[in-house]
Amino acid sequence: MPRPRSPLSRLLTVLLAGLLAGLVLAVAALPGNLLAGVTAKAALGAYDELPAALRTPATPQRSYLYANDGTTLLTTFYDVNRADVPLAEIAPVMRQAIVAAEDRRFYSHGGADLRGLARAVVANLTGGSAQGGSTLTMQYVRNVLKTDPSRTAEERQAATEQTVGRKLQEIRYATALEDSLSKDEILNRYLNIAYFGSGAYGVAAASQRYFGKAPADLTVGEAALLAGLVQSPDEYSPIDGDAEAALTRRGYVLDAMVATGAITEAQAAQARAEKTTLRPTAQPNGCVATRTDDAGFFCDYLRRWWLEQPAFGATAEEREQALRRGGYRVVTSLDPDVQATAVSQARKVYADDDARALPIAAVEPGTGRVLAMAVNRRYGVAENETVNPLISGGGSVEGYQAGSTFKMFTMLAALEAGKPLATGFDAPSRLPTRYAAEGEGSCDGRWCPANANPERMDGYRMMWDGFGRSVNTYFVWLAEQVGEDKVVEMAQRLGITFRAESDAAFAADDAANWGAFTLGVAATTPLDLANAYATVAAEGTYCAPTPVVSVTAPDGTKVPVGQPSCKRVLEADVARAATDAARCPVGQQSAYGQCNGGTASGVNRIVGRPVAGKTGSSEKNATETFVGFTPQVAVAGIAANPDDPSDAVGAAVQSEVIDAVARTIRAAVDGQPVRDFTAPSRELAGNPQRPEPKPAPRPEEPRREREIPSDILRWLQNRRG
């Protein structure tokens, strides 16, 4: 509760005019005084209201990023390393030490200590050590004004100018604060903002920085050492400054604590005798300092997401400041176990210093929450490190060709157009199309895609085994039936972003003629691909990918960001039908028993529960991709050389990519209930009747010439005409 206004406080305004002359003499002895031009009017101007920062402190605090369990710290962001703690969480000896060291009459003055000011005047005029005569309350005022993030740099600098005007302003603000806040409230605010050296602002950061403990656990000796630092934090810091000077200053504080009755002589002697054990603890700062299985790429994705959220400011600069100074508690969507598995799997395929990479992303269907972002790289700027968003794309990273995984979008477009899974086509080894082409891959001047393995792929196919065996000619034919522009639109609807200029131009201006799109020639990223397949897993509900579960402001209020942003983009039955066909590639069986071979049949054994997915190989095996999903998670991995697309990873790595993704899926669903996929309707499945095998041709008998009746001959001639 605010204390009654003291007689000193009531008389202070009158005394200020008389005190001004003495203050002029006092500050004249301080280094760098800027008295020129200061007038009595400026110094004694009216201050009817306190600045907002003093009424409601907006001191910069670090923001904390946690994994989705809310306890695993990923990293912190800060310009100033500090965090507020209530007075009850600060050891009483720490409170007593700071009062003894900086302001022994703190509990008796009204904000400005005239005796202290007079002592400072005498000391400065007689050549003693320079003194400012500032109380804890005045120091608090100065600290707030020089760190207030809402003020300009010039205003913050003016808060420490050695002028009479500034000193008087400080006194007026201090007395106003004492009229409205209790002593404990002021002390708590002071302890949370004071600088203790070595980058630590506030007692919570200082106790962690020097001793690796919470401020509630400080001993007498530790509290005295910290209290001694605030007078000259850089000089006395036992880490970065003069350790002997810090111990000497600690002795002064212990004597002061005895003088104020806070401790006894015996306690002071015991504290002096104790060996000071420092446990320097550096607070992680930014994405390069993440602590959890190289989550730097996820952290970078979160930061990019943060800079796009209007809730944190009108501009990207304001949002960056909010992250570094706002004191937010961010519970991210990152699952530590899934992340650890994805990282280890990526590094099993390629070493950290390999030019080739396996970026992997995991997404939760129905929420869009990103559970893992891993790659065989270290996030950073040192040699063999990178800060490029290899998993999510952006900046110079356009993505990688994902091959036949794009056949999913053709299948969805066909199903949506009313074509059932049983839609059949006798797929040839090569399929001449309507698109002009020259050189390799052309047939008589037309683009002529081929099946990778004619023995396993050619013949009558439906969507089930066309998808399971990855039959190129079937899906190019199917895309022609539906319309290539419908396939491109379907991919975009499910979140595929065209970051390459050529891809974006094709999609915008000539999608109807993008015949090769179904074969995955457009660049994408593991995150986009995983999220697109997560939409299928969620039975047609698309959710924008998000890296957070919750964001809490320093006052405990929830910031309305990061909640699932979802919409239906497919009929549930369409998504179920596509999922039914996607059981074929991974060695499982569709609800209609139509799977007869797959390109990733080992996934069934690894995951051990209902799962679906698709492999993809780009031209000449430049990249190898696998994306798989259950109702609870979708995971995609793309093996590529991010810096050299001409460096083909080769077909041999496909099995390793499949294995890495499958094991990441298994880690994600471990401990979760087994959920099956819902079978599609009979209407969308169609009538899966395959034609009878054609009998072997019999030897031709000699043909007998027969006369064509005249009426039929005339009819044929008319037809030719």
Automatic annotation (TrEMBL):
**What broad taxonomic lineage does this protein's source fall under?**
Bacteria, Bacillati, Actinomycetota, Actinomycetes, Micromonosporales
- Enumerate the residue ranges of region (Disordered): 673-721
Where the record annotates domain Penicillin-binding protein transpeptidase, the positions are 361-652
Q: Which reaction does it catalyse?
A: Preferential cleavage: (Ac)2-L-Lys-D-Ala-|-D-Ala. Also transpeptidation of peptidyl-alanyl moieties that are N-acyl substituents of D-alanine; [GlcNAc-(1->4)-Mur2Ac(oyl-L-Ala-gamma-D-Glu-L-Lys-D-Ala-D-Ala)](n)-di-trans,octa-cis-undecaprenyl diphosphate + beta-D-GlcNAc-(1->4)-Mur2Ac(oyl-L-Ala-gamma-D-Glu-L-Lys-D-Ala-D-Ala)-di-trans,octa-cis-undecaprenyl diphosphate = [GlcNAc-(1->4)-Mur2Ac(oyl-L-Ala-gamma-D-Glu-L-Lys-D-Ala-D-Ala)](n+1)-di-trans,octa-cis-undecaprenyl diphosphate + di-trans,octa-cis-undecaprenyl diphosphate + H(+)
- Origin organism of this chain? Micromonospora purpureochromogenes
**Where do the coiled-coil regions begin and end?**
none
Q: Where does the source fall among the domains of life?
A: Bacteria
The entry's protein name is Membrane peptidoglycan carboxypeptidase
Q: Which Pfam family, any one, appears in the UniProt record?
A: Transpeptidase
Q: Do the record's keywords include Hydrolase?
A: yes
Q: Output the Gene Ontology terms for molecular function.
A: carboxypeptidase activity
Q: Which InterPro entries match?
A: Beta-lactam/transpept-like, Glyco_trans_51, Glycosyltr_51/Transpeptidase, Lysozyme-like_dom_sf, PBP_transglycosylase, PCN-bd_Tpept
Q: What keywords were assigned to this record?
A: Carboxypeptidase, Glycosyltransferase, Hydrolase, Multifunctional enzyme, Protease, Transferase
* Residue ranges of every copy of the Glycosyl transferase family domain listed in the record: 73-257
Cite the record's Basic and acidic residues compositional bias ranges: 691-709
